[in-house]
UniProtKB/TrEMBL annotation:
<dbReference type="Pfam" id="PF07730">
    <property type="entry name" value="HisKA_3"/>
</dbReference>
<dbReference type="InterPro" id="IPR050482">
    <property type="entry name" value="Sensor_HK_TwoCompSys"/>
</dbReference>
<keyword id="KW-0418">Kinase</keyword>
<keyword id="KW-0067">ATP-binding</keyword>
<dbReference type="InterPro" id="IPR036890">
    <property type="entry name" value="HATPase_C_sf"/>
</dbReference>
<keyword id="KW-0547">Nucleotide-binding</keyword>
<feature type="region of interest" description="Disordered">
    <location>
        <begin position="341"/>
        <end position="369"/>
    </location>
</feature>
<dbReference type="InterPro" id="IPR055558">
    <property type="entry name" value="DUF7134"/>
</dbReference>
<dbReference type="Pfam" id="PF23539">
    <property type="entry name" value="DUF7134"/>
</dbReference>
<keyword id="KW-0597">Phosphoprotein</keyword>
<dbReference type="GO" id="GO:0016301">
    <property type="term" value="F:kinase activity"/>
</dbReference>
<protein>
    <recommendedName>
        <fullName>histidine kinase</fullName>
        <ecNumber>2.7.13.3</ecNumber>
    </recommendedName>
</protein>
<keyword id="KW-0175">Coiled coil</keyword>
<feature type="domain" description="Histidine kinase/HSP90-like ATPase">
    <location>
        <begin position="302"/>
        <end position="403"/>
    </location>
</feature>
<feature type="coiled-coil region">
    <location>
        <begin position="164"/>
        <end position="191"/>
    </location>
</feature>
<feature type="domain" description="DUF7134">
    <location>
        <begin position="15"/>
        <end position="160"/>
    </location>
</feature>
<feature type="domain" description="Signal transduction histidine kinase subgroup 3 dimerisation and phosphoacceptor">
    <location>
        <begin position="189"/>
        <end position="253"/>
    </location>
</feature>
């Protein structure tokens, strides 16, 4: 066991002890050191008197209150010590009590009290040695250096405590900031999961409702078509369950060793499959048009493109009574523009159509219609923008602009 590993816990326990017990033990130690002159008198011309012993005790006993009243204790010891020296019965060889009160004052008192006590002790020690008969030159250096050393050690300890307190405060702040960041990340992840679940369920249920409504109509006249509709319902349900399992999988913190890896979230590459699925399931003619050269996108933007297109087509199926829809992907050097336009029922004069639409301006998006709100939030989360409203030739149009990977990095650095 190293000395440092033993010393640090011992100091911590000492600081946590009863202050009266610790200071009382310190006063007893100082009194014992002062009394050594009476225990081992040696060869002296000056007799040892009980008055001198009382003055020596007066330099030690006030230390019991050194932390409750540091300046008053220092004044009491500062009076008793020179009185003992002047009385010469006997003069103190080491000012034990003075060193303790100087350390205490430097650690606990305001600046003016610290400076007053240091200057007073330096002057007092010098005058006492001058008054002393037969004083040697080395005694000046010894006593003055003792006073300065006690004061300097206390200042160093004070600085160390302040530095330790600052480090502990910084660690607490960092811990609070880390907890806040973690909570924000959890909230963002919960919001993302909620948006994904809404998109998956709304899309799948809308397709299933359309097929379920069409099935009974053709079950007698066209059994093959009815069977295809029911197969589409089953396939859409299975696909929705698979996507929900993938989304909810992020809520499971522990991954079993034998569990296969979860598939990534769908992105731009999955758009042709989405278009085919909507067309095959609902009879809606959906066309995917791509212009420009595809460029790399951040992972969250990839998911946003797919989910925006999915939500826009779901709205078309549920609300538009449209016969066709066009999904436009326009790649430019700086961004990707996605637009979904149908030929169905557009917004009415008030800017509302079943909670689906509103004027183009962002501030006029409807309070209801969680799908369109989710589209706007997804675009904003990726650093882009979204618009929704009447199409250029009627119908309804949803358009988003999403920055590419290079622009996202540049915006983050800027």
């Amino acid at each position: 066991m190293s000395a440092r590993s033993w010393f640090a816990p011992a100091v911590a326990r000492l600081r946590g002890s009863n202050p009266y017990a610790v200071d009382g033990a310190l006063a007893a130690a100082v009194l014992f050191a002062v009394s050594l002159q009476w225990i081992f008198p040696g060869a002296r011309d000056t007799p040892l008197t009980w008055q001198g012993h009382l003055l020596g005790a007066a330099t030690a006993l006030p230390l019991v209150w050194r932390r409750r009243a540091p300046f008053a204790t220092a004044c009491a010891v500062s009076v008793a010590t020179p009185a003992m020296a002047v009385y010469h019965a006997p003069a103190p060889d080491v000012v034990y009590g003075g060193l303790v009160v100087l350390y205490t004052v430097a650690a606990l008192c305001p600046p003016w009290q610290r400076r007053f006590m240091l200057v007073g002790w330096l002057l007092g020690v010098t005058l006492t040695i001058v008054h002393k008969t037969g004083a040697q030159p080395f005694e000046y250096a010894f006593h003055l250096m003792s006073v300065v050393s006690a004061y300097a050690l206390s200042l160093l300890a004070r600085v160390q405590r302040a530095y330790t307190a600052a480090l502990e405060d910084r660690a607490r702040r960092l811990e609070r900031e880390r907890a806040a960041d973690t909570e924000r990340a959890r909230a963002q992840e919960r919001a993302r999961i909620a948006r994904d679940m809404h998109d998956v369920l709304a899309h799948a249920v809308s397709l299933m409702v359309v097929q379920a409504e069409a099935g009974p109509v053709v079950v007698r006249s066209d059994p093959a078509r009815a069977e295809a509709a029911f197969d589409a319902i089953a396939g859409t349900g299975r696909d929705a369950m698979a996507q929900l399992r993938r989304i909810l999988g992020v809520l499971t913190e522990d991954r079993d060793a034998g569990r296969p890896e979860r598939l990534p979230q769908p992105g731009v590459a999955a758009l042709p499959g989405l278009v085919r699925q909507v067309g095959d399931s609902t009879g809606l003619r959906v066309t995917l048009r791509v212009t420009g050269e595809p460029r790399p996108l951040p992972p969250d933007t990839e998911v946003a493109v797919y989910r925006v297109a999915q939500e826009a087509l779901t709205n078309t199926v549920k609300h538009a009574y449209a016969s066709s829809a066009i999904v436009d992907l326009d790649w430019t050097e700086d961004e990707l523009r996605l637009a979904v336009t149908d030929d169905g029922r557009g917004p009415d004069a008030s800017g509302a159509d079943g909670g689906r639409s509103g004027p183009v301006a962002d501030e006029s998006w409807p309070a209801g219609g969680h799908g369109l709100i989710g589209i706007r939030e997804r675009a904003a989360a990726c650093g882009g923008s979204a618009e929704a409203g009447r199409g250029p030739e009627g119908g309804f149009r949803v358009a988003v602009r999403l920055p590419g990977a290079a622009q996202r990095r540049q915006a983050a650095l800027g």
